[in-house]
Amino acid sequence: MKQLDLSLYLVTDSGMLPPGKTLPQVVDEAIQGGVTVVQLREKSADTGNFIATARLVQAVTRRANVPLLINDRLDVALAIDADGVHIGQDDIPLEEARSLLGPDKIIGVSVQTRKEAEDAVAGGADYLGIGTCYSTTTKQVKEGPQGPAGIRDVWERALEASSHTIRAVTIGGINQFNAAHVMNYSAAFDGKVPLNGIAVVSAIMASPTPRLAAQELKRQLSTSSSLLELRPHRQLEQVKQLATEIFAKLRSTTPLVQHITNMVVINDCANACLALGGSPVMSSESEEQADLSAAVSSLVVNTGTLTSAQIEGMRSAMKHANLHNTPITLDPVAVGATGYRSQIVSQLLCDFRVSVIKGNAGEIGKLAGSKEVQMRGVDAVGSGFACPEKIAQQVALRHRCVVVMTGAEDYVSDGINTFVVQNGHKMQGQITGSGCMVGTAIGTFMHAALACKAPLVGALVGIVAINLAAEHAARRPDVRGPGTFRAAFIDEMHNLTLEQFQAEMKIKQL
Ligand SMILES: Cc1ncc(COP(=O)(O)OP(=O)(O)O)c(N)n1
Ligand SMILES: Cc1ncsc1CCOP(=O)(O)O
């Protein structure tokens, strides 16, 4: 196999150069920042200028021992003895390119579909450029963006067709905010086989500081590798031990937990967060999310009473949370109830990496594409799933996150490990917002959970803690109905001790 590190792949565009910088300078700085392969893409240069520019860039790439590929133009590649070419579906056919360049040169092929991937593999491509991932202003593309789920689909086919020998990057709209999410979400076969890298144009070419831009992208790539380690096989005893550690850690750290939540429950969620040991911040204004994100430890996003302004706030907060690797707990309230909500939630899941999705059976069922349990307003209707743990597991695998599906028993899965929580009290169903408070509880523990590299256990701790508080509240003699339960519920979140948590948690592994 040819030596080729595709992890951070720069495609040039001299039309985007920042003022005062030349193309070779930008390429040089980008390589210093960690770019591992360069493709010279000069769409408007005539042949003479293309060759002259290629020679200048080649002096830089050769010095750094980084391969230089030429976009589309075999004649230019041959003229300068480049390391290879990158060709698209409308360019010179792969077989002809191979016979002109010989077996040792690198040939990359752009693919958008499973069929194109199969053909490129059969034709002997060295790597694939799968795209477009997200919308981009750098190139006019014929088809809409595929999102990381579409990229995963093509990547899985390419791997199968090549018996796992082909390499690939994805391209289109990738930047420092979404690079880790793209790598994590597009990884094939239940997240086990990541792409070899990302290809970017504007994220580096248009940056006034290309070295820093490349460094930040590299940092995001290493975040994405570490995400693969967050889902080891777990044993029940180890989970209980970690759960106790996470519970104790929260009380000694007071994390700042930002909520963008609905207007029905906002006050209860803020109080629940405080009572559990967190510090709530309830801002949804998009303009302040960049600043807030530097201080926030965990983000809870709840779609209960969506407005356009709130959606903008969510998108901005989630984008910055992804940049800082801050855990996001998404509560897709009423996701199946209207087409609008479904579309907003699926766009959020396409664009941003979430650590946990928490929902009732109807909401999680909708995300699984199941019709067994449906939504009426914000409530799930129907007799329940024949196999609830499979639904939770399926959604966790699809979205590469932890899924908490609430109900009489609560299912928690990261796709690899699945647990059922048997704590809780039926009075939780008699007050509004108890589901939203589960989202708050999970979000409150999630910072401590990530510090222990255990998001699955963090979600378990959140749901156990709040369910135990409900059990304790319901037992109190002063609780005579939903109103007094609601106040007692918050009290008991505050009063819950580590010893009670340890002794009373009822978790079973499935
Ligand atoms: C790495 C990588 N992937 C895809 C493309 C797109 O190539 P193509 O389809 O040939 O389109 P143009 O680049 O020619 O506009 C690429 N250049 N690099
Ligand atoms: C060349 C190319 N091919 C598919 S999208 C694209 C441009 C990607 O540019 P950017 O990284 O700026 O979105």
Automatic annotation (TrEMBL):
PANTHER family in alphabetical order: THIAMINE BIOSYNTHETIC BIFUNCTIONAL ENZYME, THIAMINE-PHOSPHATE PYROPHOSPHORYLASE
Protein name, as recorded: Thiamine biosynthetic bifunctional enzyme
A single GO molecular function term of this UniProt record: magnesium ion binding
Family: In the C-terminal section; belongs to the Thz kinase family. In the N-terminal section; belongs to the thiamine-phosphate synthase family.
Keyword flag tRNA-binding: no
InterPro entries: Aldolase_TIM (IPR013785), Hyethyz_kinase (IPR000417), Ribokinase-like (IPR029056), ThiamineP_synth_sf (IPR036206), ThiamineP_synth_TenI (IPR022998), TMP_synthase (IPR034291)
Protein's job: Condenses 4-methyl-5-(beta-hydroxyethyl)thiazole monophosphate (THZ-P) and 2-methyl-4-amino-5-hydroxymethyl pyrimidine pyrophosphate (HMP-PP) to form thiamine monophosphate (TMP).
Top-level taxon of origin: Eukaryota
Keyword ATP-binding annotated: yes
HAMAP family in the record: Thz_kinase, TMP_synthase
Organism of origin: Coemansia brasiliensis
Record pathway: Cofactor biosynthesis; thiamine diphosphate biosynthesis; 4-methyl-5-(2-phosphoethyl)-thiazole from 5-(2-hydroxyethyl)-4-methylthiazole: step 1/1; Cofactor biosynthesis; thiamine diphosphate biosynthesis; thiamine phosphate from 4-amino-2-methyl-5-diphosphomethylpyrimidine and 4-methyl-5-(2-phosphoethyl)-thiazole: step 1/1
UniProt keywords, alphabetically: ATP-binding, Kinase, Magnesium, Metal-binding, Nucleotide-binding, Thiamine biosynthesis, Transferase
UniProt GO BP: thiamine biosynthetic process
Residue span, Thiamine phosphate synthase/TenI domain: 8-204
Catalytic reaction(s) noted: 4-methyl-5-(2-phosphooxyethyl)-thiazole + 4-amino-2-methyl-5-(diphosphooxymethyl)pyrimidine + H(+) = thiamine phosphate + diphosphate; 5-(2-hydroxyethyl)-4-methylthiazole + ATP = 4-methyl-5-(2-phosphooxyethyl)-thiazole + ADP + H(+); 2-[(2R,5Z)-2-carboxy-4-methylthiazol-5(2H)-ylidene]ethyl phosphate + 4-amino-2-methyl-5-(diphosphooxymethyl)pyrimidine + 2 H(+) = thiamine phosphate + CO2 + diphosphate; 2-(2-carboxy-4-methylthiazol-5-yl)ethyl phosphate + 4-amino-2-methyl-5-(diphosphooxymethyl)pyrimidine + 2 H(+) = thiamine phosphate + CO2 + diphosphate
Gene Ontology cellular component terms for the protein in this record: cytoplasm
